[in-house]
Write a structure and sequence with these properties.
The structure is a homodimer of 273-residue chains.
Chain A (H helix, E strand, L loop, with lengths): L42 E2 L7 H6 L7 H8 L3 E5 L4 E3 L7 E7 L1 E7 L5 E8 L2 E4 L12 E4 L3 E7 H10 L1 H27 L2 H11 L2 E2 L7 E4 L4 H7 L4 H13 L3 E4 L2 E4 L2 H9 L1
Antiparallel strand pairs in A: 1-2, 2-9, 3-8, 4-7, 4-9, 5-6, 5-8, 10-11, 11-13, 12-13
Helix pairs in contact in A: 3-4, 5-8, 6-7
Chain B binds a DNA duplex (30 and 30 nucleotides) through helix 7.
Chain lengths: 273, 273
DNA sequence: CGCAACATTGAGGGCCCTCAAGAGGTGTGG
DNA sequence: CCACACCTCTTGAGGGCCCTCAATGTTGCG
């Protein structure tokens, strides 16, 4: 069924409707964050791959052996089960937090227990590189979507290591600078782009070129559509309507959690306004 | 005239209507940025107060003499006339840019020559602490509102100095971390707060306690109201209507560019939603 | 005084949210 | 195996928020 539906009648998804990803096993009403457990399951020591975060996030040159050693000596690795909290904005940040593997939602736990996702992070990536330097609470709540492996570096100890290894300080600076730029772009788009443009931009950014159809691309949604909507600061209903609107225009073709981009150029134009 | 107007009739400002600040002398259609001039008017050398930026922005402990020396050796001071561009987002950032004194608008110069202000910075403060680390173009355009003094540190040279003075690297890190936190808060408010809440928050943040009237406070607008609106991502018309709405509720009292906050607690409540 | 820029106010409308209903899928217990 | 609960996604109806456009009043300046 290549043609997008055109009428207002009930739309029936094709039989190959993709099953919802694993997040279905993580209901939103997952157990609330229990801070007392945060410190458990800690273990210390050099772990292979400890430098992947720093290399992946702060540029191409690999860390020197001495730098790896300095980091490994103070790294604390934590495994977080699906649905569990990683950190809470009600607790003072004393460590830099990285995500080695897994998916974590950054957002805000509301009074009624639900979680408002603002951003979803897939490892390896930083989760909170900034709060610890200010002796403030974490800026957001973080909740694991699937099983996740988290690495933390105590700020006090890291600060001493940075003094001896300027290359590491440089990585921290570059990582923070990247974050500033990303947030600035985000702010700009929220201020000046409407919902269709933000969605088009979001889709355009995660286009993966599709072999076999020149110019076309595919976007796989690794999260619930309501979480996509949440990241774009729109409601799930609006997201659904926009997807249908783009489909009617022949720009994309939606099939469950797969979005096929038929006309990337038009999608780019939609992202402009 | 203490009571706010209540009817829909034409409102007449009291005679003591404050004259618009100096920005009136800087028309929005000021001369476009001429990049060739950016490098002019540079001079080098140690300048008294060079460390004020670093001290003001990155914490209480004053810089050591050695640190001041390291910074002064590479600092480039520039004086920018009112209405002139400070940097442009079409040029690669090679320096960290600080504002020692004056006011600078950060935003985007649009195709039609107008300037969309997203943030207004009053020195001493950083103007762009992040772009140079990524070898990217500046994230925004910057335009001086009044006469401004700008200090720049070339990234290459600074990076070498940071390696020898870990305390300076720490300052850069803290400065960037502050910026990340501020931007995160900003993003959150844009996503989840409506226009009245954002305005209330904005006013609440810049309350200056008012002697003589316990609990009350005053907010002086140092910029055109249209620039205030721009920072809040609303139109000047909406800002005007909201000001009147708050006045009708008895929360504030507007007199030209002076806003008197009659009920800070209520203003805080308005900022919550 | 005429002109330019800013602020204010009103009328109208578009965008997007809220609320509600229904379809389809999955896991669970009888 | 089926009923049931529960979740997600979709679609429609209605409405509120805020933008756009236009007109008016005020202030400062040549």
């Amino acid at each position: 069924m290549a043609a997008p539906p055109t009428g207002p009648m009930v739309i029936r998804m094709e039989p190959s409707f993709a099953a919802p990803p694993a997040f279905a096993a993580v209901p939103e009403r997952a157990a609330a964050l229990r801070p007392a457990q945060l410190g458990q399951a800690l273990r210390r020591g050099a772990v292979p791959g400890d430098d992947s975060l720093w290399s992946a996030l702060a540029g191409t040159p690999a860390l020197s052996d001495a730098e790896v050693e300095a980091l490994a000596g103070i790294a604390q690795v934590r495994h977080v089960a699906a649905g569990q909290g990683v950190f809470s904005r009600s607790h003072t940040a004393s460590t830099l937090v990285g995500l080695r593997s897994g998916e974590v939602a950054l957002g805000f736990r509301t009074a009624d227990g639900t979680f408002r996702t603002e951003r979803i992070v897939r490892g390896p990536a930083w989760l909170d590189l900034s709060s610890a330097w200010l002796d403030e609470a974490h800026a957001m709540d973080a909740q694991a979507l699937g099983s996740a492996t988290v690495v933390e570096w105590p700020r006090e100890a890291l600060q001493q290591r940075l003094a001896k290894h300027p290359g590491l300080a440089q990585r921290v600076i570059v990582g923070l600078a990247r974050e500033v730029q990303a947030l600035a772009v985000n702010t700009h788009e929220l201020m000046h782009k409407d919902a269709p443009a933000r969605l088009a931009q979001w889709l355009h950014q995660r286009c993966e070129p599709l072999a076999g159809a020149a110019g076309q691309a595919i976007v796989k949604l690794h999260e619930r559509k309501r979480d996509v909507a949440s990241q774009l600061a729109i409601t799930p209903e609006t997201l659904s309507r926009l997807m249908r609107s783009f489909s009617r225009q022949g720009v994309i073709e939606v099939s469950g959690y797969n979005v096929r981009v038929l006309d990337p150029v038009a999608l780019g134009r939609l992202a402009q306004a």
